[in-house]
Specification:
The structure is a homodimer. The first copy, chain A, is mainly β. Helices cover 9% and strands 31% of the residues of chain A. Chain A is built from 1 helix and 9 strands. In chain A, the strands form 2 sheets. In chain A, strands 2-3-8-7-4-9 form a 6-stranded antiparallel barrel. In chain A, strands 5-6 form a two-stranded antiparallel sheet. Chain A is globular and about 45 Å long. Strand 1 of chain A pairs antiparallel with strand 1 of chain B.
Chain lengths: 154, 154
């Protein structure tokens, strides 16, 4: 199958480093290419956006993994990469739902983007009602990770 | 900014043609590359998946549009492409939430994938609770399109 080329439409700006990036309350900016600012017109009429980005920190040799332990934890089962959100995947595309806080020219201020400073943005889509499913079934390991995170917060 | 190269991980198989593709009740198959079948391990423990695909039918010259009328309808406002789900976008990446019905080897059977036969698949992600926001704010034009679709169904 033929390869596909993409062009970054902008970059992430954040002061978060290391694990701080995963904090869903964190505010960061998406700096769109100036020639594309017009393509954001009226985006502020949506409260939430889906951000598709390129996890550029993943070396090519890490794209060949087929199975991983979620979060690299050996107490979690070994599962296929497509059954996890690991960045170590064939095409290291990131996908995150964010809250849109502000639009100024070519700059979007968003809450909840778990991407590092300098991450290339591939696409921005408005979040719509059809992007939701309820109820969802999750595996035991995922519920265990969720419970741990909740316990830590309390 | 440098261009990014991606590799299709599989293809869509569907009998749907034309507008039938948008029918969210329709069942289609994702044929993963055989060498990647292992990367689907345990994916059936999730009820829903996010499918990221490449809208290969969009010619390169259509990737430069900055504004569109949603659904090509002149009675809808002219809005920035990133404020719509139009395929005429800088990087024609498709993103759809589907219900996972069956997994057999390298073949996933899913409901609700609005992609044409032969569409290259870029990534498959399990749908998780953090992929949901409630309530969401939508623009007037989007609510109008939704109401029309509901009226038609009744």
């Amino acid at each position: 199958m033929e390869k596909i080329w993409l062009e970054p439409i902008g970059l992430v700006r954040t002061k978060a480093i290391g694990r701080e990036v995963s904090d869903r309350g964190r505010v960061s900016e998406i700096i769109l290419r100036e020639d594309l600012a017009e393509a954001l017109d009226r985006i502020e009429s949506f409260s939430h956006l889906l951000i598709i980005f390129w996890m550029h920190g993943i070396p090519n040799e890490e794209r060949t993994r087929k199975k991983v332990h979620p979060r690299g934890r050996m107490d979690m089962p070994l599962v296929g990469v497509f059954a996890t959100r690991t960045p170590y995947r064939r095409n290291p595309i990131g996908l995150t739902l964010v809250e849109l806080l502000e639009v100024r020219g070519n700059i979007l201020t968003v809450r909840g983007l778990d991407a590092f400073d300098g991450t290339p943005i591939l696409d921005i889509k408005p979040f719509d009602r059809w992007d939701t499913a309820e109820p969802v079934r999750l595996p035991e390991w995922r519920i265990r990770l969720e419970k741990e995170a909740n316990d830590k917060r309390q």
